[in-house]
Amino acid sequence: MRFILRFCFVTLLLLVSAVLARAQVLSGVDLLNSTVFQQHQSSFSGLGARVRLHSASLVEGFELMPYAEFWRNSTRVDAFAITTTRKDATLGADLRFSFRGEGWRPYVGAGFGLHFLSSEVDAPQLDVHHEQDSVIKGGLSALAGMTFPLTRHLDNFIEVKFHDLPGFSQLKLNMGVAWRL
Hints:
Elements lengths: L1 H21 L3 E13 L4 E11 L8 E16 L4 E17 L6 E19 L4 E22 L4 E11 L5 E11 L1
Antiparallel strand pairs: 1-2, 1-8, 2-3, 3-4, 4-5, 5-6, 6-7, 7-8
């Protein structure tokens, strides 16, 4: 059932993106690497991608950004043969406002994401064999960052993004490359 929900959501996201791109509102594509600080966890890395959409019906400076992000954290304690894995695949959209300026351009934004969280524990010495738990949670997000132009169509960016999920809140330091159309 979860696979069907994920597949339908991704398909819907791709269809909406394709329709908007066809209407000539695609303004860019971003690839990002994250350092993730999840509530009650140490930091680890994640990956993400998003498209930037701008329509003439939006105020100048605003962009809608559908995105997909993923991280996975695995820990092993050899002395007790304990292995744990946590994952988060997120699909969502942010609305971002970029301030005008030459060169560096700061921006702020907010959005909503659907998080597909899963945990797995394997501890045979404690009689725990491949126990799994999955949950789907929706949460608001807030972001702030800055872009740095490299070429006419290529930018670097760095941003801070907070996902507000009860019990699973995440702070992410994102950096990446943005391709402007």
